[in-house]
Amino acid sequence: MLHGLRTGALRLVLAATFAVLPSLVTTSPASAAPRFAGFAASCPTSGFISDAYGGARDHDGIDIANALGTPIYAVGDGEVINSGPAQGYGQWIRILHPDGTVTEYGHMYQRDVAVGERVTAGQRIALMGAEGEASGPHLHLRVRRDTSMSHGIDPIPYLADRGVTVPCTPGRRPGPAPLVYPVESGRVVSARSADGRLEVFAAGADGVHHAWQSQVNGGWSEWEKLGGPRNAQLAIAPNADGRLEAFAINGDVAQHRYQLAPSGAWSGWEDFGTGGSSITAGVNADGRIEVFASGPTGVFHRYQTAPNGGWSNWEPSGGGPGGSRVKMEKSSDGRLEVFALNGSVFQHQYQTSVNGGWSQWEDFGGGGHDVTVDHNADGRLEVFASGPVGVFHRYQTGPSSWSGWEPVRGPANSRLTSDRTADGRVEVFAINGDVAMHIWQQGLNASYSDWDTFGTGGTDVTAATNADGRIEVFGTSREGVHHKWQTGFSTWSEWTWVNSTSGPSVP
Asked: In this protein, which residues make up the domain named PLL-like beta propeller (predicted)?
C-alpha cells in the first residue's frame, strides 16, 4: 500500500533529490514479441459532421450527414454482433473488433451484412438512410470500449488514434495519426516514424543506443550502439517532412542526428552546442522544430529558421530555473508552452502567439523532482510533478487560467511520463527506485483512478503510442531497458526486454 500524503500539502514544496535509482523495472525478461489487438481504421463514410459528440444533449456518438444511399463502411475488421431493427435507429449494425471495442452504425435504409459475418476494414456494410429518430439521411456512429458499456466514447479521437481524421474520404489507405504534440524527453525517448513504427533511444554511460519496430505495431530490432553524448538527456521531434530528429545533451556537449528520409536511415551525430542539464523539443504550428535546454544559469532555446531547414543560434529564454528538468507541450490553439522545475522553483513560459515570441517566465509552484505535461481531450493542458511526498497535478481551467496544485499521492521522487489512451484519456506513469505505478482518467477530461502497481523500481520511464493507439511504456534500470505494452486498450503485457538483449544500462 502507498503511504498517505499530508492533507495540508496542497502546494509543492519538494526537495531536489535527483538520486540514482538502481532497482530493476521488471521481474523477469521474456523473448516474445508484442501481440496486439488494435487496428488501423478505415473511413466509415463520406459527408459532414452534423452533430458532434457530447454537448448539452449528451449526444452519444457523432452524426455524419450525406445523401440518401451514401455507402457506409466498417471502421475495422471484426464480427457483426447485431444487424436489424433497433429502437431509435430504425436499423442498426454493431461490429465487435479484435481489441474488444465495438462500433455501432445507425439509421441506414439498407443493411448488407448479417449477424455472425466477419467483415474487413473498409468493407461496405450498409447504405445511409433516415430511419428511426432522424431528421435527414445520416450515419450515427457510436463507439464503445467493450460490449458491457452502456455509453459510448467520442468516435473522433478513437478514429484519429487509428489514422482516420473525420470528415474523411472512403478508400484512402489508413495510416498513423501525425505527431502533433511534443514527445516526452529524458534518458529514454520514443516516437513514431512516418510509417507508424516506433523508434526508441536510450542513453547509457557508453553513449546512446537505438532500436526500432521491424513492422508497424510489431516486434523490435536488436539494439544499435550510436555513440554520442554519454549519460545524456534526450529529446526527439518530427520535421515537417516526417523525418525524426533526435537531440542529446550532457554536461559537456549537445549533439543531434536526423533521419535522411522519412522512416529511413539516420545521419551521424552533429554538433548542436555546449553542455547542459536537460533538453526538450516540440514543433511549431508551421512545422519548425524548437528546442529548449537548461544549464546552470537558466534555460536557452534554439529553433529552425524554416521547416526542415537550418537552425538559429542558441538564445537566452529570459531566465528560467538553472539546472532544471524541462518539458514542453502544445496548447489547443497551437502555441508551445515550456515547463521547467528544479529543487527549489517551478516556472513556465509560453508563446504569446502561434509560431511567435515568448512570454516572461512565470512562477508555477515550488521545486520538485520531475515533471510531465499532457493534454486533455478538450485540449486543456495538465501538469504532473513529483517530490518527496508524492505526485501533484495542476490543470488549465480555461485557455490561460490554472487550478491550484492538488495531491494525487503516488511514488515519491519519481520520474514521470504520460500519454493518452486511444479514447483520449490521460494516463500517467511514475517510477522510482522501489516501484513503478500508473493512474488514468476514469472518463474524458475527468478525475483519476487510484494508483495501480505497474512494476518494480527503475531509473527513468517514457510512454509512446503505437500506430493502432496502444500505449507502449519503456522503463530503464542498471540492468537495461524493458517495455510493457497494451494488449488491448485496457489490458497490459508483462515487462520484458525490448528485444533479445538487455540494451544499455541506464543508472
From this structure: 185-500
Cα–Cα dist 468/174, whole Å: 10
Contact between residue 495 and residue 25 where contact means Cβ atoms under 8 Å apart: yes
Element (H, E) at 156: helix 155-160
> φ, ψ for residue 429 (rounded to 5)?
-120, 135
Number of other CB atoms surrounding residue 308 within 10 Å: 15
Q: What is the DSSP string of 396-465?
A: BSSSS-BPPPEEEE--TT-EEEEEE-TTS-EEEEEE-SSEEEEEEBSSTT--B---EEEEE--SEEEEEE
Q: What is the C-alpha separation between 95 and 102, in angstroms, rounded?
A: 6
| Tens-place pLDDT, residues 158-193 | 887 777 888 888 875 544 444 568 999 999 999 999
Query: How many whole angstroms separate alpha carbon 102 and alpha carbon 416?
Result: 32
- Which cell is 25 given? 523495472
Q: What radius of gyration do the chain's Cα atoms show? A: 23
Instruction: Kindly list the distances between the CA atom of residue 374 and the CA atoms of 219, 316, 339, 381, 427, in Å, as whole numbers in the listed order.
Output: 27, 25, 11, 6, 9
Omega within 30 of 0 (cis) for the link into 167? yes
Q: How far is CA 411 from the centre of its chain?
A: 21
- Over residues 86-103, the pLDDT tens digits come to 999 999 999 999 878 899
Output the nine-digit C-alpha cell for 463. Answer: 510512454
Q: What is the pLDDT of the chain when averaged over all its residues?
A: 88
Q: Are 327 and 372 in contact (CB under 8 A)?
A: yes
Backbone angles phi, psi at 304, to 5 degrees: -70, 135
Quote the CA–CA distance of 102 and 7 in Å, as a whole number: 42
State how far Cα 31 lies from the chain centre: 26
How much is the pLDDT for 35? 27
Which letter, b or e, does each residue of 340-365 get, where b requires 16 or more Cβ atoms within 10 Å of its Cβ? bbbbebbbbbbbeeeeeebeebeebb
Q: What single-letter amino acid sits at 341?
A: L
CA-to-CA dists, residue 192 to 103, 179, 419, 488, 505, angstroms: 26, 8, 13, 19, 23
Cell numbers at residue 76, please? 475495422
Percent above pLDDT 70 for the chain: 90
**Dihedrals phi, psi of 156, to nearest 5 degrees:** -70, -55
Pairing of strands 233-238, 336-341: unpaired
